[in-house]
Structure formats: structure tokens, C-alpha cells
TrEMBL record:
Record-linked InterPro entries: AcTrfase_GNAT_prd, Acyl_CoA_acyltransferase, Diverse_Substrate_AcTransf, GNAT_dom
Organism: Actinomadura livida
Family statement: Belongs to the acetyltransferase family.
Record lineage: Bacteria, Bacillati, Actinomycetota, Actinomycetes, Streptosporangiales
Keywords of this entry: Acyltransferase, Transferase
N-acetyltransferase domain residues: 1-155
Coiled-coil segments on the chain, per record: none
Name the record gives this protein: GNAT family N-acetyltransferase
Length: 156
């Protein structure tokens, strides 16, 4: 079962974020709190959204996403920040169902893309995405300003 997240899901969302970060070898980088998630996901006009995968009343996966905008297409799109399913629940279609839900939202709203990033070493996930028809955008390289470099740029 896939559904929109509720405030009651916050402990599970935070748990899954931490589990994802551990899988990606970056648990030490997780700083987010339940309060920050509550403020972002459940404010009057949220800018970020989440869906939950449930099995027999237990949260086993989530997706967290936000809107993008294409100046070339003139339409919004969805950027999938995170998608994670508990290892014990994998292979039952929860990841696929979460991704299909985002595709349905995009299609229903006239958005022209759903996109995300995946770590180059994460072959099982890459193969999963490609099995659904997703293709890498090899001609683009992701750049990021963060931490001290962000502060330095902001004060230039």
C-alpha cells in the first residue's frame, strides 16, 4: 500500500533516512530532526512531500520529493530526493510502487519528468531503475555548493 505521509510517520521517515544514509556509507552526514521534517512536510504550503509504503500496518519504505521547473519545457517536474525500502521488504514491489506513484502524479499534473540521482557504485539500484525504463543522463554532471564553500560564495 502506498499513501501520502502523515505526521505520525515522522519517526519511521527519520529511521528510513538514517537507514538509507547507512547504506550509502554516509550516516555521519545525517543532521535532520523530526522537527525539521515536520516543518518541511506538513507546513501550510509544503515545498517537500513524502509517500509511505506500508505492509500489514508497518512502514517499510518511503519516497521524499519536491517540484522542479524546466525553463525549456515550461512545466514542473518531480525531483526524487530519496527512495528507500527496508532490506527485508525488498523484492515485493514497494520501490516500484513508490516510483510509479510519482510517475502518476507527474502525469496527472502535466509534469514532463521525474528525475533523481543515484550513486555510481549502487548497481542493484541502477538496475532496478533501468528495469522501469529510466535512463542515466550522462551528458550532465551534478555540482553542489555546501558547507564552507557555500558560505564563501554567499559572502563573495
Amino acid at each position: 500500500m502506498i499513501r501520502s505521509a502523515t505526521p505520525d510517520d515522522l519517526p519511521d521517515i527519520l529511521r528510513l533516512i538514517r537507514d538509507l544514509a547507512e547504506y550509502e556509507r554516509a550516516l555521519h552526514e545525517v543532521k535532520v530532526t523530526e522537527e525539521q521534517l515536520r516543518d518541511s512536510l506538513f507546513r501550510d504550503e509544503p515545498k517537500v512531500f513524502a509517500h509511505i509504503a506500508e505492509h500489514e500496518g508497518e512502514v517499510v519504505g518511503f519516497s521524499l520529493w519536491f517540484l522542479t521547473f524546466s525553463t525549456w519545457n515550461g512545466t514542473h517536474g518531480i525531483y526524487l530526493e530519496d527512495l528507500f525500502v527496508d532490506p527485508d521488504a525488498r523484492g515485493h514491489g514497494y520501490g516500484k510502487a513508490l516510483l510509479i506513484e510519482l510517475a502518476r502524479i507527474a502525469d496527472a499534473r502535466g509534469y514532463e519528468r521525474v528525475e533523481w540521482a543515484v550513486l555510481n557504485w549502487n548497481r542493484p539500484t541502477i538496475e532496478f531503475y533501468e528495469s522501469l525504463g529510466a535512463r542515466p543522463q550522462d551528458e550532465w554532471t551534478v555540482y553542489r555548493l555546501t558547507g564552507d564553500t557555500l558560505t564563501k560564495a554567499a559572502r563573495a
